[in-house]
């Protein structure tokens, strides 16, 4: 591990706004920490950002929506470090970060449903054969159904046309209700609130490069009982 990464990795353990998990049992997807009450200063609905990277997006959302709590999720501690530090410096109390693999979220969050989810610029994994690793593959959609309130909104933002098409197909297969989708977010005249008003680190870079940003707003059917 490079020196800077290692220092961040060590320092982040002491951050009060980061929950740092380690895998306890990979088969049962258990980690050493679970969600507890009173993590946030105020008890209010919690929104999650999946693969938040440097956390810029959920920090902006937290500033805009003080009546909601935001949980930024990513596996890379050195990226979370940047967002967590910024949130602390600004004194934001409605944003927290958790270092965890998305796959382990249902056991981590058990009993603490989430009201909304953002999946922002997930890795497109265009070289994988069947897209299993993509964060909008059916197995991940099943996982989101377990952690979200019934009828909760999910939002996908991506610059990748293959991932966009794959996601629409995967959502249709999973019985999702696609409320709105566009191949070019910033050319649509729809009022899309935070989706248009807030940009992630990657999004700003892609826009500068002239890439079109794709967006899907959807809900998922409730998980089956068995
Ligand atoms: C391309 S980056 C986008 C970061 C941020 N959303 C943005 O738009 O600036 C994708 C992020 O997803 C995270 N990620 C990918 N797969 C993950 C998984 N299974 N669990 C947790 N994080 C994951 C990566 O660590 C990375 O930070």
Number of strands: 10
Low-confidence stretches: none
Mean pLDDT: 94
What is the count of DSSP helices, taking H or I runs of 4+ residues? 8
Bound molecules: S-adenosylmethionine
The gyration radius over C-alpha positions equals 17 Å
Which percent range fits the helix content? 25-40%
Secondary-structure map:
Blueprint: H1 3-11, E1 18-20, E2 23-25, E3 30-31, E4 46-50, H2 56-64, E5 69-74, H3 77-90, E6 95-99, H4 105-109, E7 114-120, H5 138-147, E8 148-158, H6 161-173, E9 177-182, H7 194-197, H8 201-208, E10 214-219
Parallel strand pairs: 1-6, 4-5, 4-7, 5-6, 7-8
Antiparallel strand pairs: 2-3, 8-10, 9-10
The structure holds S-adenosylmethionine.
Give a description of the structure.
The chain has eight helices and ten strands. With 226 residues, it is an alpha/beta fold. The protein has a single domain, classed as Rossmann fold. The protein has helices spanning 3-11, 56-64, 77-90, 105-109, 138-147, 161-173, 194-197, 201-208; strands at residues 18-20, 23-25, 30-31, 46-50, 69-74, 95-99, 114-120, 148-158, 177-182, 214-219. S-adenosylmethionine binds at residues 51-53, 74-76, 79, 101-103, 120-123, 200-203.
Can you tag this structure with a few keywords?
226 residues, alpha/beta, Rossmann fold, eight-stranded mixed sheet, two-stranded antiparallel ribbon, 10 strands, globular, binds S-adenosylmethionine
Question: Can you describe this structure in just a few lines?
Answer:
The protein is built from 8 helices and 10 strands. The protein has helices at 3-11, 56-64, 77-90, 105-109, 138-147, 161-173, 194-197, 201-208; strands at residues 18-20, 23-25, 30-31, 46-50, 69-74, 95-99, 114-120, 148-158, 177-182, 214-219.
């Amino acid at each position: 591990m490079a020196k800077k990464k290692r220092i961040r990795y060590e320092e982040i353990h002491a951050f009060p706004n980061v929950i740092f998990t380690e895998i306890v049992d990979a088969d049962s997807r258990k980690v050493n920490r679970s969600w507890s009450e009173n993590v946030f200063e105020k008890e209010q609905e919690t929104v999650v950002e999946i693969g938040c990277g440097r956390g810029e997006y959920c920090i902006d959302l937290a500033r805009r929506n003080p009546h909601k709590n935001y949980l930024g999720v990513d596996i890379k501690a050195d990226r979370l470090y940047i967002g967590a530090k910024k949130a602390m410096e600004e004194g934001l109390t409605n944003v927290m970060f958790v270092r965890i693999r998305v796959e382990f979220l249902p056991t981590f969050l058990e009993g603490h449903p989430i009201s909304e989810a953002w999946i922002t610029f997930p890795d497109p994994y265009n070289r994988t054969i069947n897209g299993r690793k993509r964060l909008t593959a059916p197995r991940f959609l099943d996982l989101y159904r377990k952690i979200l309130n019934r009828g909760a909104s999910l939002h996908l933002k991506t610059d990748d046309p293959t991932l966009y098409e794959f996601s629409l197909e995967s959502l249709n297969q999973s019985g999702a209700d696609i409320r709105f989708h566009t191949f070019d977010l910033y050319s649509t005249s729809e009022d899309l609130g935070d989706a248009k008003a807030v940009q992630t680190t990657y999004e700003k870079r892609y826009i500068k490069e002239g890439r079109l940003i794709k967006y899907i707003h959807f809900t998922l059917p409730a998980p089956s009982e068995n």
